[in-house]
C-alpha cells in the first residue's frame, strides 16, 4: 500500500512548491491525480513505460485500452507524433488548450504501454492551470486516463479520486470540482474526414464549423454494444457504471416521463429501492425513493457537469436501480448520452 498525499492547490494560481513536489513524484515514476477542465486525470511520465504500467495496475484498467498523453506546448506534440495533417493543425490552433484529444501517428519513442500497441497516439493540451503547471514543471508529457477505478463513473472532485484510488497512488492535487464534467472529445485525424471516436467536451457542431465534414463512429453513439472492429479496443469496454443497475429511457419528453414512471412503479412493486435521474423540467413529476436532476434541458452543460457526481451519489443512497431520462443529442448532449448509454450497459427503452 502507498500513502496517498492530498494537496489542496489554487486552481487559478497553483502554488509553486506544491506543483514542484507533484512534479518530483512524476519524474520519479510515481502517480499523481490532478484536475483538468474535463475530469480528474491520473498522471504518470508518458515516456517511462514502467510508470505508465503502474497507471493500469492502480486503475485495474484493461491493458489494451490506450491512454491519452497530455502536453503543455505544441512543441511536445511534434516530439510524440509524425505527419500532423493540416486539419489537425487547424484544430489545434482553435481548440487547444481545451477538451479535444487528437489521435495522430505515433513516433517510435512513444511506449507501447501507452498506445495499447497501436501505431497512433492520442494527445491533448488541457485548459487548466494546475494541469499545465504540472506538465511544465515535470518537463515531460504526462499520460493520464481518468482517475477512477476502471469501469466506475469518472471523478469530478478530488474526493471521488480518493474514494477509488486511496492507497494506490502517491498524490492527489485537489483543485476543486472540474468545470466541464465529461471527458475530452477523442477525434481521429489520421483519417479524412476526421472521425469522433468518443464524444466529449468539444462538440460535434464546434468541430464541423472548423473542418467541415466530421464523421461519428457508431461506437461513439453507443446505441448498442459494438462487436465489430473498432479503432481502439478501449471503445468496447464497460464504462461509467454506478453499482446500481441503470435503465435509460429515450424519446420525446412527454412519453419519456410516462415510460419512466411506469418503470419506477414496476420496480417499487417488486421491492426495489428506485432512483430517478431527471431534469429540472420533469423532476417534480416523479414518485420514487430518490429523485435527482441533471439541470435544465435547455442547458446541457449543467447535465455534463453533474452527471458523474450524481451517478456516484445514487450509490451512496443505496438505490438498486436508477431510471434515467435521455437528453437531446445536441451539443454536450451527445457526450452525456454516450455516458448514459454505456452506464446502462445498453438497457435502453424507447418511449415513443
Ligand atoms: P480515458 O482513459 O478515460 O481518458 O479514455 C481514453 C480514451 O482515449 C479511450 O476511449 C481510448 O480508447 C482513447 N484513445 C487513447 N489512445 C487512442 C488511440 N491511439 N487511438 C484511438 N483511441 C485512443
Ligand atoms: Mg476513463
Question: What portion of residues belong to β-strands?
Answer: 15-25%
Mean pLDDT: 96
The computed structural class is alpha/beta
> How does the major sheet shape up?
12 strands, mixed
Ranges with pLDDT <50 over ≥5 residues?
none
Between the first and last Cα atoms, what is the distance in angstroms? 51 Å
Radius of gyration: 20 Å
Which of globular, elongated, flat, extended, rod-shaped describes the shape? globular
Q: State the domain count.
A: 2
CATH superfamily name of the largest domain?
Answer: DHBP synthase
Number of contiguous helices? 12
**Share of helical residues:** 25-40%
Number of strands: 17
Q: Which CATH C-level class of the largest domain is it?
A: Alpha Beta
Looking at CATH, which topology of the largest domain would you report? DHBP synthase
What is the CATH architecture descriptor of the largest domain?
A: Alpha-Beta Complex
Name the hetero compounds present.
adenosine monophosphate, magnesium ion
Order of helices and strands: EHEEHEHEHEHEHEHEEEHEHEHEEHEHE
Topology, please?
Blueprint: E1 5-8, H1 16-27, E2 32-34, E3 41-45, H2 49-59, E4 69-70, H3 74-80, E5 81-82, H4 86-95, E6 100-106, H5 112-115, E7 120-124, H6 129-138, E8 142-143, H7 158-165, E9 171-174, E10 185-188, E11 195-198, H8 204-211, E12 215-216, H9 218-221, E13 245-250, H10 253-269, E14 274-278, E15 290-293, H11 300-316, E16 321-325, H12 333-343, E17 348-350
Parallel strand pairs: 1-9, 2-9, 4-7, 6-10, 11-12, 13-16, 13-17, 14-15, 14-16
Antiparallel strand pairs: 2-3, 3-8, 4-8, 5-6, 6-7, 10-11
Amino acid at each position: 500500500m502507498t500513502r496517498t498525499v492530498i494537496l489542496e492547490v489554487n486552481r487559478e494560481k497553483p502554488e509553486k512548491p506544491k506543483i514542484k513536489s507533484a512534479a518530483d513524484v512524476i519524474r520519479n515514476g510515481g502517480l499523481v491525480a490532478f484536475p483538468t477542465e474535463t475530469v480528474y486525470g491520473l498522471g504518470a511520465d508518458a515516456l517511462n513505460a514502467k510508470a505508465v504500467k503502474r497507471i493500469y495496475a492502480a486503475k485495474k484498467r484493461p491493458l489494451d485500452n490506450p491512454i491519452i498523453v497530455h502536453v503543455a506546448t505544441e512543441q511536445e506534440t511534434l516530439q510524440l507524433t509524425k505527419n500532423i495533417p493540416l486539419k489537425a493543425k487547424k484544430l489545434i490552433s482553435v481548440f487547444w488548450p481545451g477538451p479535444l484529444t487528437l489521435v495522430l501517428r505515433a513516433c517510435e519513442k512513444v511506449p507501447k504501454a501507452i498506445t495499447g500497441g497501436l501505431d497512433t497516439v492520442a494527445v491533448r493540451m488541457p485548459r487548466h492551470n494546475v494541469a499545465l503547471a504540472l506538465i511544465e514543471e515535470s518537463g515531460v508529457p504526462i499520460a493520464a486516463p481518468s482517475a477512477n477505478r476502471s469501469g466506475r463513473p469518472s471523478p469530478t472532485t478530488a474526493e471521488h479520486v480518493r474514494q477509488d484510488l486511496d492507497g494506490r497512488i502517491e498524490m492527489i492535487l485537489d483543485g476543486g470540482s472540474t468545470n466541464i464534467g465529461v471527458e475530452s472529445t477523442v477525434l481521429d485525424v489520421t483519417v479524412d474526414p476526421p472521425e469522433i471516436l468518443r464524444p466529449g467536451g468539444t462538440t460535434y457542431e464546434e468541430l464541423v464549423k472548423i473542418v467541415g465534414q466530421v464523421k461519428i463512429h457508431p461506437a461513439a453513439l453507443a446505441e448498442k454494444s459494438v462487436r465489430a472492429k473498432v479503432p481502439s479496443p478501449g471503445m468496447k469496454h464497460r464504462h461509467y457504471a454506478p453499482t446500481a443497475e441503470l435503465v435509460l429511457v429515450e424519446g420525446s419528453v412527454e412519453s419519456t416521463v410516462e415510460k419512466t414512471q411506469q418503470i419506477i412503479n414496476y420496480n417499487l412493486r417488486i421491492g426495489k429501492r428506485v432512483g430517478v435521474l431527471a431534469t429540472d423540467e420533469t423532476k417534480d413529476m416523479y414518485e420514487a425513493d430518490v429523485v435527482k436532476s441533471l439541470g435544465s434541458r435547455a442547458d446541457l452543460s449543467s447535465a455534463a457537469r453533474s452527471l458523474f457526481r450524481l451517478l456516484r451519489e445514487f450509490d451512496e443512497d443505496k438505490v438498486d436501480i436508477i431510471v434515467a431520462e435521455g437528453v437531446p443529442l445536441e451539443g454536450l448532449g451527445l457526450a452525456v448520452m454516450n455516458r448514459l448509454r454505456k452506464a446502462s450497459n445498453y438497457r435502453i427503452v424507447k418511449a415513443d
